[in-house]
Amino acid sequence: MLLWPTVAAAVALAILLALGTWQVQRLAWKNAWIAELRAAEALPPEPLPAALDDPASVVFRRFAVTGQFRHDLSVLVGVHERNRQLGNYLFTPLERAQGEPVWIVRGWVPYEAPFAVPKPEGEVTVVGFLMLPERRGWLTPDDKPADRRFWAFEPEVINRAVGLDRSTPFAIAAIGTDRDPPIPQRRPATPRNDHLGYAITWYGLAIALIAFWVAWARKLLREERARA
Question: What stretch of H or E contains 205?
Fold first, then answer.
């Protein structure tokens, strides 16, 4: 009578423990990754090379890049709320003397008047961290190329829409303390790290399963003794 319920409970327990252990491993990996990112963030900015072989390896590393903005090709990416006001991030390509143009995330701008912001002319130097392309999800709305509005940073898609022949496969998100649009980021965002909560949840369910099985088995055995 206890055999098959016990087998089923053992299988479920093994799955719950495996999921909890996996989240603990993910927690250790995420903590190490965040520490690595923060260490890279603390380093002084270095000049952006003409080409990067592996951009993913230097994510959140600060770079300084010099060139001239192409304000006529600026686009808006995503929808972001700031102080209860909707807005977008303003992306503008920066043409360099050496290397491909690089998209610069100049900062947050209000949704209603996104392009009514200062437009520095001539040679400028931008300091920021490297940003990789974003993935489009199943529920991501369609872009509006005619309005220069895009839901995700996809360099090839945006390049074709604005007529830019080429660009780096990444962007540089400007860092600064300006309070007027475009408002740059003050520092890279910390990646979400919810793995401890997930691990506690899975282990908690495992403990609850054991407690339920023990209570159920004891009740069943008492009933069997009573009938005997």
Answer: helix 195-227
Please, is 23 exposed, middle or buried when counting C-beta atoms within 10 Å of its C-beta (0-12, 13-18, 19+)? Answer: buried
Same domain for 112 and 212, yes or no, is no
Burial of 107 (0-12, 13-18, 19+ CB in 10 A): buried
Contact 131, 196 (CB under 8 A): no
135 vs 99: which has the higher pLDDT: 99
Query: What distance in Å separates the CA atoms of residue 204 and residue 117, rounded to the nearest whole number?
Result: 52
Q: Could you tell me if residue 44 is inside a domain? A: no
Answer yes or no: is 46 within a domain. no
Residue 100 domain-assigned (yes or no): yes
- Count how many domains the chain has: 2
Q: Do the Cβ atoms of 86 and 160 come closer than 8 Å? A: no
Left if phi > 0, otherwise alpha if psi is -120 to 50, otherwise beta: which for 77? beta
- H or E stretch covering 109: strand 102-110
The continuous run of DSSP H or E covering 210 comes out as helix 195-227
pLDDT in tens, 75-92: 999 988 888 889 999 999
Residue 81 lies in a domain: yes
Please give the Cα distance from 202 to 215 (Å, whole number): 20
Domain that holds residue 19: 3-35+193-227
Q: Are residues 140 and 217 in the same domain?
A: no
| Cα–Cα distance measured from residue 51 to residue 194, given in angstroms and rounded to the nearest whole number | 35
